[in-house]
Amino acid sequence: MKKNKVFLPLILIIIFSAAIWSCGSGQESHETAKETTEEHHDEEQIVSISPEEMKEFGVETAVAGSGLLQVHVTLPGEVVIPPDNLAHIHPRFPGIVKEVRKTVGDRVKKGEVLAIIESNESMSDYALKSLIDGTVIEMHMTRGEMVDDDQHGFVVADLRKVWIYLQVYQKDLPYVHKGQTVLISAGKGMPEVKGTISYIAPVIDEITRTAEARVVLPNSNGLWKPGLFVTGRVVTEKIKVNLAIPKTALENLNGKTVVFVREGAGFKPLPIHIGRENDSLVEVVHGLKPGQTYVSKNGFILKAELLKSEFGDDEH
After folding, report:
1. What is the C-alpha separation between 125 and 129, in angstroms, rounded?
2. Helix (H, G, I), strand (E, B) or coil at 128
3. What does the CA dihedral 142, 144, 147, 153 come to, rounded to 10 degrees?
4. Please, which residues have CB within 8 angstroms of residue 87's CB and are 6 or more apart in sequence?
């Protein structure tokens, strides 16, 4: 009986030690398996693409580094004719239109005859002449018509120079000033041009609750037609950031913002956190490191290849 009392604690100790060893071994085995799975997953995340394929699909790369982030405000606007470049030309005396020599679209010189009118009083002819060099943009008379008021005549405009009137909202007034550079655009197919704010209205319009800012643009090619709606971007601040990349580098993968970075012979999606941004650039605050090579354009090609690969593995 005494002998059994001695061996019982010893047996319990052996069983307890074996259990601890078994648990520890299982945990290590689980962690090892987890690491192996993660490593395998990382390998699966790498997309290989040849230089020839990159060229064919327009995949471009860049080296991550600092950049200048320009913060701007966007203002709606319209192209208008400067008042000094516009002439309304009407008959001086009531009469009959005997001849119309110019029509809408014709280029005219100052003093050039637009129409011939026979006066009702003197029964003699007199010429209706252009007051400026320009283009006929309106014509309101026909041959044989009786003219006796300001509803008849011509409108001539010199369109070699136009004004852009931008609407400055109240919230943007502190950041928009005379002398600032403005990028003017009018949508697809129109060039983006630079201009300078030459005037800001001292009062706010009661209806629109905006102040007008004026930009003068040369228009020798006639692209900026009066009445055209435009957008003006005024740079209000320039910030140097440690890491800036183009927005074309960003991809969304599994709900995360990623960029594809060089990993060995291929590229790997890297989650990043972004900070300040404008229309073309974003600041990277976490994830990407200076000096890393990343895909700056058409990364969706790599994303598609990655998703296709993962879908194939799941199917298998």
Report:
1. 13
2. strand
3. 20
4. 130, 131, 132, 134, 155, 156, 157
CB 196 within 8 A of CB 259: no
Q: Is 167 exposed, middle or buried (0-12, 13-18, 19+ CB in 10 A)?
A: middle
**Global confidence as pTM:** 0.64
Structure tokens at 142: 């026909």
Element (H, E) at 257: strand 256-263
CB 137 within 8 A of CB 156: yes
Give the pLDDT of residue 4: 45
Superfamily of domain 72-81+160-239: Efflux pump adaptor protein, beta barrel domain (2.40.30.170)
Tokens 């969706």 locate to: 300
Q: Are 304 and 96 in contact (CB under 8 A)?
A: no
Question: What gap in Å lies between CA 209 and CA 203, rounded to an integer?
Answer: 10
Domain ranges in the chain are 48-64+250-315, 72-81+160-239, 86-157
DSSP, res 93: S
Q: Which pLDDT score, from 0 to 100, does residue 150 have?
A: 83
The contacts of residue 254 (CB under 8 Å, 6+ apart) are none
Along the chain (316 residues), what's the average pLDDT of each consecutive run of 10 residues? 44 45 47 44 73 93 93 93 96 96 97 97 96 96 92 96 96 93 90 94 93 96 94 90 95 94 93 90 94 95 85 52
Query: Tokens representing 6?
Result: 């001695």
pLDDT at 313: 53
Please give the single-letter amino acid code of residue 113: V
The CATH number assigned to the domain with range 48-64+250-315 reads 2.40.420.20
Which among 224, 233, 232, 193 has a CA at the least distance from the CA of 79? 224
Both tokens assigned to 38: 């993660």
Query: Quick one: which of 281, 203, 213, 246 has its CA closest to 74?
Result: 213
**Hey, what CATH topology would domain 86-157 get?**
OB fold (Dihydrolipoamide Acetyltransferase, E2P) (2.40.50)
